Amino acid sequence: MDVVVAALTLGFGLIAGSLVTMLVARIPAGIPLTPVSRCPICHHHLSLPESLPVVSWLLCRGRCRHCGNPIPWSVTALEIATAVLCLLVVTQTEPGGWLVLPPLLLVVSLMALIVIDLVHYRLPDVIVAPAVAVSLLVMAVLSVAPLGRPIAVVQALVAGGAVLVAMLIPHLINPAGLGFGDVKLGLLLGVHTGWVGASRYESWSAVGRLTFWAVLLGMLLGLVLAGLLHLLRRVSGKHLLADPAAGGVGPVPFLKTPVPFGPGLSLGALFIVCFPQCIMG
Ligand SMILES: [Zn+2]
């Protein structure tokens, strides 16, 4: 991969990571989204140099210039993780080509959704709905040029709809086990796994296979993450990553408390989007 493309991707990823940290901090708290960055502790408006991801953290030695409080390490870690994932999808897609746009959109929206679901047990429509709409719009343009296969966007939409319907059934049977937020997230994930099958392999069969394995892998990862969380709660005796709406802290009965399922589903789909060759050969 070209060094310039890698540097540009990392730069874009860090700025996107900064956007992710803003979404994570503001949307669950109901704070309006504005282009102005704020200190996460004292909420002081930050100047442009103070807002530069990672660089500002290094320059200010991890502290806010206004209140002197340490900036949570999770903010910088989230920016770096977003940048690394952006680099991964670009290296796995088509470095320098327009087809990198849909997976980049997916990474940015999923990073925000994963963190919000882990902490708040929510998958906000205000992120999922625009992510689906913008993804389909970008795919519609790309399917005409450079792909020259207008049906590709239809295939992505059909895959998304199929996942939505497939996940709606277990949700209707047991709403407490699989939330409606997860069902709507399934639409976003299916659109993207379908798009990989449509744009790279140009067949309905690839669309179906990649989407099926993404859902299966996502469900498995969701169960593994849930098991790990239960185990950590049991060992520590603490209500780690508790549902804030349920409240309550203390000893946790095994398999009796809810766990967020969105992160597992998201990671499963991200894996298939980055490494479809694992399924398609
Ligand atoms: Zn501050």
Written overview of the protein:
This protein is mostly helical. It folds into two domains: 1-92, no CATH class; 120-281, no CATH class. 67% of the residues lie in helices and 0% in strands. The protein contains eleven helices and no strands. The protein starts with a helix and ends with a helix. The protein binds zinc ion (ZN). Zinc ion (ZN) is lined by residues 39, 41-42, 44, 64, 66-67, 69. Zinc ion binds next to loops.
Write the layout of secondary structure elements.
Layout: H1 3-26, H2 48-51, H3 55-59, H4 73-92, H5 101-120, H6 125-144, H7 151-173, H8 180-201, H9 204-236, H10 262-274, H11 277-280
Helix pairs in contact: 1-4, 1-5, 4-5, 5-6, 5-10, 6-7, 6-8, 7-8, 7-9, 8-9, 8-10, 9-10
The chain binds zinc ion.
Zinc ion binds at residues 39, 41-42, 44, 64, 66-67, 69.
List keywords for this structure.
281 residues, mainly alpha
In short:
The chain has 281 residues and is an all-alpha fold. It has helices spanning 3-26, 48-51, 55-59, 73-92, 101-120, 125-144, 151-173, 180-201, 204-236, 262-274, 277-280. 67% of the residues lie in helices and 0% in strands.
